[in-house]
Amino acid sequence: MLRLKGEAFSDGIASGRIRIADMEPRGSGLLAGRGSPDHLSGSIFVLGSEPAPASIASIARSAVRGHDCAIIVNHGTSDLAAELSSLGIAAVSGLQPDYFLAGDSARVDGGRGIVEVDDVNAREVVSCLVQSGGKTLILKRSEKVGSWQGKWAAVSGYVEEGESPAETAFKEIREELSVERPELVRGGPPVITRKEGIVWISHPFLFTLEQGSTEIRIDWEHTDFRWITLNELNSFDTVPGLGRMLAALGLG
Q1: Residues 229, 155: one domain?
Q2: Which domain holds residue 29?
Q3: Count of beta carbons in the 10 Å neighbourhood of residue 121
Q4: pLDDT tens-digit readout, 198-252
Q5: 147 and 31 within one domain
Q6: Among 36, 53, 44, which residue's Cα sits nearest to residue 13?
């Protein structure tokens, strides 16, 4: 079970199926083509776009009151929280929509800011982008690794129990590239990628190599590597989320 801690937004507890809701200002996304609002019972709406508070409140007043529903938002205002609370609708904020897929069975505890999703597990990893001499390193994942075989990626690895993501990042650079003294430039906010019943929580880091060196030795996890400019990246078949990782590091 995936247990997520967001921010308490509106008190209440609700269980149901995740629905990725279209809540643009036109305010029709929850209801369009559905007929009776009874279909809303047992729904947990994840807002996949930045919603207009008035739009959510309008839908809530007309269709959600009296049903076992909840709302998950990435960001929300105090006015929206007060509106949902007055309607008795549980809500949690501060959670990216990338954690969820339509149809997930979930529970929302708005008072504690907790969302639990059945049959989903989280795996925490690091993704380490290495640059040197104006070029960026990408590596082709071998058939021996557990996921994304044959795709191009950054240096990556699981965060082991007792390790911090930064400690894992340095370890993976040493193991996968045979580089002993990489320089950490910066980290970025986690990038969330969902694949069926697994949520990948990837901590991005940017490294440079000592004195602009491009000499590395790859291990069994990769079959090839390239030093490229970021403008060339689109010509490679990369792992999901690599573009968002670049953005998280201020490179996208």
Answers
A1: yes
A2: 2-117
A3: 10
A4: 999 999 999 999 777 888 999 999 999 999 999 999 999 999 889 999 999 999 7
A5: no
A6: 44
